[in-house]
Amino acid sequence: MAEREATWRPMQWTGDALILLDQTALPREERYLECRTAEEVAAAIREMRIRGAPAIGIAAVAGLALALRGSASTGGDWRQAFEAAARLLVSTRPTAVDLFHGLERARERIVGATDPEEAAQVLSEFVKELLERQWAIDQAIAEHGAGLLPRGARVLTHCNTGALGTGAYGTALGIVRRAYELGHLDHVWVTETRPRLQGARLTTWELRRLGIPHTLIVDGAATWLMSRGEIQAVVVGADRVAVNGDVANKIGTLALAVAADRFRVPFYVAAPLSTFDPNVSEGSAIPIEERDSAEVLRLGEAWIASAETPVWNPAFDVTPGWLITALVTEYGVVPSPDRPKIAALLAASGARR
Ligand code: MRU
Fold first, then answer.
1. Which residue segment(s) compose the domain that 56 sits in?
2. Is the confidence at residue 197, as pLDDT, over 60?
3. Which atom of ligand 1 has the smallest separation from the CA of 166?
């Protein structure tokens, strides 16, 4: 499997700064952003300079480490500083559960710390560990998922689930990468992914660098392509998986799942265990982020509708588990996900962690 040959890094941790490839500048410019405080990390997540559920989970832990470093140099109650930073970071994007898991696990890690220097060091090591571990997780997902695709597959993917979305190899796009390396993949159809255009701006950028043949389509073209038999599988990521198998993912995912069901195209969702929420019983309980109307009313700097136009801009939707052919996790494939299968997966993964 291809290793980390890339000349670019979505996210680097130096111990006192988080360096992010600014995803709002892509594909025009490869611009790096240096975050030295929790506030800067929170702003980068909110503004989607870093995005994708696993990537923001790791960035949030880095934000906490930076808050502790700051507290070590300014003095004051460092545990309070930690909690204030956690509240700020958790308020940035409500749907991706990786963010909440990252913060909880960071809190557990520093329970025994006696001063902010020690706590900051513990979290600094934890960020390194998370970045390292994400590679192994992504590569396991890629391996499991690539095995599901038929030879010569033409697959469709939505949003961006590549290295930019995880900080490592990618989840759904990792499956695409691996299938291509194995010679199983013929072509990737990439949806534009309105309104933030993660497919058009980011996924095509990654695929071009990887040399994987692809074609960009507007979101509305996907059903037509499926009806013509041009797609052998849809592969997407997730922001939160409920324990009954319902999945929140980028807005437009549900439409793809319905079309895939109607035209008998397998619909796969790739998600690491960090994206599963054992506290959410079903999809309707997943909080769905609603973003600014300007994202819909404007394309870049250009207004495409009157600023007075009422807008509804949910960033995610929920696909019921019964529309999903299989979930692909680092622990293996869960076909036709349901409550008992996910309970078994969580129990088995908990036992192995
Ligand atoms: O709003 P975004 O760009 O953060 O949404 C990203 C997605 O919906 C991805 O599918 C998901 O986070 C998985 S990224 C590996």
1. 3-137
2. yes
3. 15
Q: Is 274 in the pocket of ligand 1 (CB under 6 A)?
A: no
- Rounded Cα gap, residues 115 and 81, in angstroms: 12
DSSP assignment letter at 111:
T
Question: Is residue 186 among the annotated active site residues?
Answer: no
- Cα 289 to averaged position of ligand 1 atoms, centre (Å): 12
Over residues 138-181, the pLDDT tens digits come to 999 999 999 999 999 999 999 999 999 999 999 999 999 999 99
Q: Are residues 118 and 179 in the same domain?
A: no
Q: How far, CA to CA in Å, does 47 sit from each of 40, 154, 296, 341?
A: 10, 33, 15, 36
What span, in angstroms and rounded, lies between the C-alpha atoms of 121 and 81? 15
Q: Are residues 188 and 109 in the same domain?
A: no
pTM of the model: 0.96
Distance from the CA of 268 to the center of ligand 1, in angstroms? 15
pLDDT at 6: 62
Q: Measured between alpha carbons, how far is 82 from 68 in angstroms, rounded to an integer?
A: 6
Q: Domain boundary residue among 82, 105, 137? A: 137
Q: Which atom of ligand 1 is nearest to the CA of 171?
A: 15
**Centre of ligand 1 from the C-alpha of residue 321, in Å:** 18
Q: How confident is the model at residue 73 (pLDDT cuts 50, 70, 90)?
A: confident
Q: Residue 166: CB within 6 Å of ligand 1? A: yes
Co-location of 157 and 105 in the same domain? no
CATH number at residue 203: 3.40.50.10470
Q: List pLDDT tens digits, range 306-333.
A: 999 999 999 999 999 999 999 999 999 9
Per the structure, how many domains does the chain have?
2
- Boundary-marking domain end, from 112, 137, 162: 137
